[in-house]
Amino acid sequence: MLFFRGLPVITLALSKGRIYDQTAPLLDAAGVTARDDPATSRKLILATTRPDVRLIIVRAADVPTYVQYGAADLGVAGKDTLDEHGGQGLYQPIDLQIARCRLVVAVPEGFDYQRAVRQGARLRVATKYARTAREHFAAKGVHVDLIKLYGSMELAPLTGLADAIVDLVDTGNTLRANRLKAVEEIAPVSARLIVNQAALRVKRAAIQPLLDAFARAVS
Ligand code: ATP
Ligand code: PRP
Fold it and tell me: Cα(154) to centroid of ligand 2, in Å?
């Protein structure tokens, strides 16, 4: 365990972009401000105005893994990535109500998805959310072949790679720009504060005030 002047150091994992940008004001309210801006700095470990709190910058999908294994005590991750990860070893105390969007099934504008489902068609579905998509379609009894992608899912139906996608939608601009439509909502999504369960037991005195500050900043 790392210490600063007898205090355990708390490590918080964040991803660059919307999660960092929308978490920063909550952290400010908790008295924690990064000393470098991850948008311009190449540093992956950021010191903060609190010498006993540091931030690490990781890919969005890797935040739950860092916290699960205790490489970070806390993290901020979308419910989409948490569901895909499975949540083992994680305590999820606070819905931060940021980075809100929806996980949906989307298809080309001219495609009759409900009809295809009624007819028992086998659909090719491209997504980076393979686990969540598998569970969703299994629960509906829809036969699918899943194709794992890492981004730009909207391209898959336009190029013949897939019939449908499972992806995030916020304003709907990306779907519209690519002549796709949402046909089914799988889950509403927002970012959650996550905590390593063992760290919470061992470092509770240090972590609990931060959780309380986050909770106050959200409400
Ligand atoms: P990477 O950039 O590493 O490939 P990513 O694209 O998932 O990962 P972000 O785009 O920063 O990373 O998304 C992080 C989280 O923000 C997502 O897991 C989701 O919870 C949320 N999110 C993604 N897109 C939107 C959106 N358009 N509007 C609101 N929230 C979103
Ligand atoms: C996300 C998501 C969609 C888009 C939806 O992509 O994967 O493509 O936002 O938002 P909208 O409904 O408001 O258009 P993002 O902007 O994060 O780009 P990237 O993940 O492809 O980098």
Answer: 9
